[in-house]
Amino acid sequence: MALSDSVTTCLSPPVHYVICKLGYEKTDTYDINNILSENGEVCWQAVTDHVCYLEPDQSVDYIKSIRLLGPVCESVNLHFKSLTKDQFVVQYALWFHWTNYTELFLEIFDVLQYSRTTEVALGLMKLTSCLERALGDVYLLVGKDCPFLLRDLLASEQLTLVFGQAVMNVLKVFIGSPCGLNLRNVLWHGFASPQEIPAKYCAMLLLLTAGLGQLLEMYLLQTECILVHRPYVIFVSLEELEVFPGNLSMLVSLLADLNHETLSIAEELVKLSSFVLKTMLPFWMAALTAFRQSRYADCVILLLPQLEVGLRLLFTTTNKCPNRMLTAEVKILPKVKYDLMLAKNLDNGEVNQLPAVLEEPAMASEFLWDFLNHQEGPRIRDRLSHGEIDLKAFPKEVANQMVAFAITLLCRFSDENMFAFKEHMVIKPLMNCASCYRSRFHPISQLKKQVLECMKSIHLWPELPTVPEEYIGTMKGLEGNAETSTSILMISEIISQLRQYMPQNSCSSDDPVNSVLTERLLTELCDMHICTLYSPRPVLEILVVLRKISTQCHQVSKQIIASTELRYKQWMNKTLRSRQRHNYLRMLNSTKLLSPMLRLILVLITLELVNIHLVSKKNPFDYQQYLKFLKSILQYTENLVTYTSPEKNKWDETMELTNKALIKIRKINDRKLMLMLLAT
């Protein structure tokens, strides 16, 4: 794709002017002593005086402000270069404590000494992330529900109360508004190449962060408040993030081994792939170096914007809108980000052509949705860019997956003369594994996990210790066994109607309940691939209800397991009163019906799930009526949770409730509404 060679910048002309030229128009030298005292304290009045305002609304005039602040930033940059590391630590280290990451800012000081463009850009990305997190902590001193977006955070009354409006306006010039330099967004969304970010703006933000620490200290002394730092997000169940389980060790070897052969493979892929903009090549090389040096957070921070840029290149090319490769005009947020690139349709209603260009559209799109967007996924980019992750403890497992995924994209969009690389003993298994990727964090995938976990829980019931069966049969008042048998027969009838939609080897005519309502059946159904891309609203609405039903069923199972174990222990120790013994036996009797009933519900959920894509088609049923039915089943399971709780123990009511729910299920099934998603 020749376009990757021809693109020299991803900044639109107005944005390029603001970032790369505007701050250099005034060439006069600014005296650093005007804004810094001898011991390094920031004179905020001298800084805020450089912010200009428009009439009559007194909104910030970003163009004039950036022009005036340009020489100030240059002076700060030169000042920092004149300091030794020890001098900087003595004067400023204390003022970074409020960020909860002092060492990051000391590291950025080191970067500024040499002004290596890629390191400066990385430093700025990490600085803005950490600063946003720290400002959020300050916000919570006086407010609740910290805003998610940085621009909303900087515009909040809460931060204005602590720091003052003039100070907040200075920050908006650098990072808080698309009308200003907007350094955070142009870097995190991959619009700026390393050489397009002046080091002096990084130096200025370093100083401003220290200055904010000085203002915050005065505020805390006056108010006697204590700044509390929110805990970092910790990735749990890292094994769920393993997309390339059999190939990770080879991948690590590929990038971690310092010999010339292995490094050259990774580097050649980057240099020759049409997925990489040549202006962005330093970012890619720095990401590989960071991985090799076990700097996993740095690796992913550098890589994420480049994945976005590469996909944006494909998106704009395939959809024939090359102008959208650039940032939007100054007053608008960036046009094309992950959300739009992964959407089914463009904002003009036309079909997005990007998935068709990706050889395995589900693989690339589902992986990106999983790792970046789905609410129950790791949401790596959001959490990194908003400072929610401890960079010092970033998991190697996540970096492994992101690098492996990047390599597959580099290979997919490389020239034919790259065939040898694609067939390499390390690369080929990665490509094969990637092509089989299935979503792990879409609501459909999460529901599959819930259903299987619930079924595993119910399958523990027969293994629980219980009193001999003859006790239940002889206890007065437990004459409901005939009723239980009738209900189980009803379950068998429903199963018979559903057999045509189940795997052929899952049914037995001798014992349909115990041969069909099994963990094996659910596993077979859940193993079926279900497309998770572009789920319409009706599907998502149904998924919400189905997940709630599954959650309630699992809670019922856990309560029954806990009650059964406790009551049996009390029975054996002879500490149960007569009424408690009777109630215990009622519970055991109820489980004979509850077990198949809950398993039936799980099977129904899974059958609906396997065919849920049909909900968006025109089927001969009333969707709203069906949704109402599902909500009635949800109500049943919620009542079950109440009745089977240790506090209630209402087992007669549980049986009555279950019988009514079964009748409703059979009635809906008979009317073919239960099978609406199976309609063709």
Automatic annotation (TrEMBL):
Signal sequence, renumbered to the chain: none
InterPro entries attached to this UniProt entry: DUF4209 (IPR025209), ERMARD (IPR039635)
A Pfam entry, by short name: DUF4209
Domain DUF4209: 131-211
Protein name: EMARD protein
Originating organism: Hemiprocne comata
Upper classification of the organism: Eukaryota, Metazoa, Chordata, Craniata, Vertebrata
Underlying gene: Ermard
